[in-house]
Amino acid sequence: MNSKAKFRLWIILTLLLSMFFSSVNQVQGQGSQPISANGHFWRAGTSEYYDVPWTLVFSPAGGDVYGSANWSETVTEDDGSVNSMDVNWDFVGTYAGGDGGVVAGTMSGTAKATGYPTFYFSGPWSGNLYASGIGEGVFDATVTAEGESASGQYSWQVNYSADDFAAGLKSTITAEFIAATYGITITNTAGESGQKEWSDHELGLLNDLLKEIPKEFLANLSLQSIARADVYYKRSLPDPYTFGVYRPSSSSIVIFDQASSPFDFQDDPNGDKQFKATILHELVHALQYKKDEYSNFDNPYKSPLVQSYMDATTPLNAVDTGIWENGWTYFEGRGKNGNWKQWSDENEKPPTNYGQSNPCEDMSESVMMYVYDPEKLKISSPLRYNFIRDQIFGGIEYENGVQK
Question: By the 8 A CB rule, do 20 and 141 touch?
Fold first, then answer.
């Protein structure tokens, strides 16, 4: 085989066996100081692997991942001709953070070689990154050229410093990071007893929540800022039992000290889960009020999402027994205000007592439980669980606040 034929064969092998390595564009930013990982890949079922100059960059605390594998190879043939190959690939992906957290995304890119058409690459990739300093997973690749395509699965592995990984998990989350990553301003509210500031621990809990929420969910919120305050005041009187509030007029959330008091969860001795769950509860209110890019509904019950939720969580036998005995019904009051009444059986009911206040609180409490105690929600109401899974979280499910 002459040198030119060997070179072309090498190109083909490289194209088919090294499609995995590429760069990942950063979208959401990193949750802590990013670290670098280097590695290799191989075809499943073989012992072969090819070292490729590839670097994966990610934050141990989670967020988007990125890297680079843009390289060129040039070979001068015996007859003096020059052949070359240029590869440029991009991965878009996110990392859930922590030991064993899922990293996943999609890939696209090209490879150009002398005498060959342009090869186009695409496909999903996924895996896990571990505190031990090893990451591994698979890439389902498709390569297309001049209308023809082929596909295959490849395994990958990367290595990085376990000490750097541990240090990254301890990095402080700042208000600036939250604003840059999620577009949410962190503020401190001056209350009756003075200004309350976010602690580093609370900002870390906020980031733990936000990084697990789908981007589509966050994009549909009417939310500008989240503030901390010591206690809620109603008509100049303190209400120490309020966990948080959403204010549609300013598209803002205020979280009070009570949010750190264990209440809804048994496995929450420090109140950290309650704090995150309270913020999520208020985020759902921001979802309910969102009308469009420029305005809010004056009444959240005008929201198609809230209306759909009420319809979907009405027991299936409502047609037989009548609306007055199933789901939510609003009764007009003799004076200014009316009230909501909810009928349900043991198999289809709000997951908390507070969720029985009205449909919006029912929805907020149910979403809170969907993420932080999904088994409880499944038991209390399969209809609620299924609606939230399919219509709010796009099929994503959770275990103890972390995406499965």
Answer: yes
- Contacts of 297 by beta carbon, 8 Å cutoff, 6+ apart: 288, 289, 290, 291, 303
Q: Which two tokens stand for residue 191?
A: 């209350």
Strand-pair category, 82-95 with 71-76: antiparallel
Identity of the residue numbered 237:
L
Spatial distance between the Cα atoms of 141 and 128, rounded to a whole number of angstroms: 18
Taking CA atoms, 303 is separated from 128, 199, 216, 285, 299, in Å, by: 38, 35, 17, 11, 8
What region, left, alpha or beta, does residue 50 occupy, with left being phi > 0 and alpha being psi -120 to 50 degrees? beta
At 325-361, the pLDDT tens digits run 568 887 776 556 778 888 777 788 999 999 999 999 9
Q: For position 189, what pLDDT does the model report?
A: 66
Pairing of strands 82-95, 23-24: parallel
Give yes or no for a contact between 156 and 39, defined as CB atoms under 8 angstroms apart: yes
192 and 238 Cβ atoms separated by less than 8 Å: yes
User: pTM of the entire structure?
Assistant: 0.63
pLDDT tens per residue, range 217-230: 999 999 999 999 99
**Structure token digits, residue 223:** 């939310």
Q: What is the SS3 assignment for 119-183?
A: EEEEEEEEEEECCCCEEEEEEEEEEEECCEEEEEEEEEEEECCHHHHHHHHCCCCCHHHHHHHHC
Strands (E), 261-319: none
Pairwise CA distance, residues 133 & 18, whole Å: 22
- DSSP conformational letter for 338: -
The angle at the Cα of 282, spanning 233 to 371, to the nearest 5 degrees, equals 140
- CB atoms under 10 Å from CB of 158, counted, come to 24
**Structure confidence by residue, pLDDT tens digits, 78-96:** 788 888 878 777 777 888 8
